[in-house]
Amino acid sequence: QKTAYEIRLSLVGSEMCIRDSPFSEEDYINLLLQRTDFIVKNGLDSAVSHWANSGSTEGIKELISNKPFMQEYLEDTLKKCQLEATNIISHVKQTSSHIESFLSIGCGNALVEMFIAQQIRPSIIYLIDIEQTPGKHHHGLAKNGAGYTSLQTAVKFLESNLDYRPVIVAINPLQQNLPSIKVDLIISLFSAGFHYSMNQYREFMTSSTLRGGLLIFDERKRHDIPLGFEFNCNEFANLKCCSAGSGHERKLMIRI
Fold first, then answer.
1. pLDDT tens track for 31-49
2. Which residues contact 86 (CB under 8 A, 6 or more apart)?
């Protein structure tokens, strides 16, 4: 039987209770594969390595069955997601006064997206993810990304935790055509440009961003395949580096 967790966090001066009720064991497996920092920091990354080498999730399941570990993992992970969102929003607000719509490519379980939405309160949120890629299980750089999430769960997670009701549209590009839309903000965090080439979404990003709209993505510094960072100067202009980590920069660009 699944253990329910409720994590309380301070959010812009108020307390926010994060509920995990939409998550099944499979959703927790996906989450631990998406967010491995705490696992690695505690010397438990053999479970992730075993999955990468064999596709087996037995080691991940053992971690999930450890309630004290999971409580700490969720607190640590959600705090980091909150900080990521706060950093992104601080840069967005310097450039754009209002975000009516935003889109996330490679959204995973939509943790950072939840914190972003809670603060900027867009009326419509688009979530894009390939969800599952049987036979492909990696965290590195490859021609095509690997999927380990459920869009249905991501949507339910947002609905359970946001204190308002935006329209949420979920798209799996392996099963559906990408929509013809216009949005104020596109984010792709540790997804396009980091795990696989941005060329897969480049035309879509360009056509979907409103003039004056923003694009935020993680640029991998060391790579041996083309990653498609070089947007036409008539399409996007570089604004700044939002943050930097080991081997990557989080870039902010504006549609012109």
1. 998 888 899 999 999 998 8
2. 115, 119
Query: Which range among 8-12, 41-45, 232-236 has the greatest average pLDDT?
Result: 41-45
8 Å CB contact between 112 and 85: yes
Rg (CA), the chain: 18
- pLDDT one-digit tens code per residue, 101-126: 999 999 999 999 999 999 999 999 99
